[in-house]
Hints:
Blueprint: H1 14-18, H2 27-38, H3 44-58, H4 60-74, H5 79-105, E1 111-115, H6 117-124, E2 129-133, H7 141-148, E3 154-159, H8 164-177, E4 182-187, H9 192-202, E5 206-210, E6 220-225, E7 228-233, H10 235-243, E8 247-256, E9 259-264, H11 276-297
Parallel strand pairs: 1-9, 2-5, 2-8, 3-4, 3-5
Antiparallel strand pairs: 6-7, 8-9
Helix pairs in contact: 2-5, 3-5, 4-5
Amino acid sequence: MPALSLQAxxxxxxxxxxxxxxxxxxxxxxxxxxxPRVLPSWAYTPTATAFAFVFQLFLxxxxxxxxxxxxxxxxxxxFWAGQRRAFRTLRQFAYSYGDRYxxxxxxxxxxxxxxxxxAWKAARGSGGLIFVTAHIGAWEMSSYLAASDLGLKVxxxxxxxLDPRSQDFIARLVARRGNPNCVTHFATDDPRxxxxxxQALRKGEIVAVxxxxxxxxxxxxxxxxxxxxxxxxxxxxALARLSGAPLVPVFSFREQxxxxxxxxREPIRVAAGGSTDEAITVAARVLAAHIEWAIRRRxxxxxxxxxxxxxxxx
Length: 314
C-alpha cells in the first residue's frame, strides 16, 4: 500500500463495505473520465453540485476537516456557516476534479491565463526548475501548461492512489492520454526517484512537485502557516539544494469552467553553502508564506481534506 499523505483524508470503515464505490475506489476515477463524453454541457454545474451535496452528507470526516481548517483561515463561525464553508469547498473540489479528467480527454476546451512567468524564465537560464505547488485549484494545470504551451519537458511527481485498482487505472490513463513532453512519476520510497529527478534538472528540464502534503515516514520541516505550526515535505527543498535549481511557487486557480489562472511567484533559492538543515528551513519558511498567500486568495479552492492542525483547530 502506498504511504498515506499526512494531510490526506483517512479511510473509514465504509471502505470495505462500499468497495469500488468508496471515495478512493475506481468508480470515482472512471466516472469523471466517462462523463464529459456522454453528458451535455448544461449538465456540468448541476452534476458537480449534486456530487458536492453527496460528499457533504456522507464524507463526515472530510466535512469536519474542512470546517476545522477553514476556521483557522477565515476565522470562527457558527454551525451553519461552517457547513456552508465546507459545501462551497466540496463544490469547488468537484469542479476541479472533473476538469482534471476532462482536460486529459479534451485539452483543447481549456484556456489557461499565466501571470508572473517572467521571473521564472529569467531564473531558469539554461538550467532546470522545480515547480512547487499545493493542493489548490487544479494543481496539475501548471505542469500541462509547461509541457504543452511552452514546449518544455516536465517531470510530474504525484502520489499513488490508495486503492490499487484506482492506481492502475490512473497509471494507464496518464500513459494513454498524457502529453509526450509530460512524464509522470509516482512518489514512492525508492531513492532512485530522487536521482532521476536530479538528473532531469541538470539537463535543464522541469520537475513539478507538491509542496504542502508530507507523506508518512518522509522527512519534514517545521513552518508556520496562519500563525500555527505545521509540517511541509522536505523533499522538494532538498532536491533544490542538491541540484541548484530554483523553486518556483506556482498556483492554478479555477476562474470558471474551462478557464484557469496560473500565477507564478518569485523563485526561491535554497542556499548551497552552510548547514543543509538551516538552508532548507529558511527556504521552507518562504515557501509557506507563498502557500498561505494562495490559500487566502482562494480559501474554498484549498483541498486539505484532513485536519492540518488536529489539536489547535478542533
